[in-house]
Write a structure and sequence with these properties.
Elements lengths: L7 H12 L5 E2 L3 E9 L5 E10 L5 E2 L1 H10 L2 E2 L2 E11 L8 H6 L7 E4 L5 E2 L3 E2 L7 E8 L26 H6 L1
Parallel strand pairs: 2-10
Antiparallel strand pairs: 1-9, 2-3, 4-8, 5-6, 6-7, 6-10
Amino acid sequence: MEEELNTDWVTQFEKVDEKYEKFYKKKVATINVFFLYVDRDSNLFYIKKNRENLTDNGVLEKKQLVKLLRENMNYNSKNYRPISILQYNITLNPNNIKSLIKDPQQYDFINPQDSIQDLKWDNSIEYFTDMNSLHIIFFETWKDKRKKTNTKKIYIKSTKSNNKKTKRKHLKV
């Protein structure tokens, strides 16, 4: 007589585990990119938001970042230059969610970038994946006509011929 294996407990576990699925870590596939525009008086006046896909490894490649910068350096017929790139990646472990709620000040998920390079987002809790982002701050560039000077270069040439003989040459002759 064959005995059947009781698998009811597995099914019950899967049902309970479904509730907590969003608290497991997974790869970051997309991020929000925020473009913040600051005028000459240091006032933030416009924010633009894009959704960007990452590679399978959770990387925003350098060429894609450069493309984003170039496409967004102009706004309302004015030129802007990027002054800051901030990467926001929530790398919290599921075990630390309670401590984040109790004391959020102890966690810092912002990484300032000092160069244009490939940016990698580490695995994140699925519930927080929409919070992973990139913030690019653009500052308005301008040319102040008052400071512009037309400096003419003057090259000084000696009118004397440079046929001086050194002692060594003089003695040989």
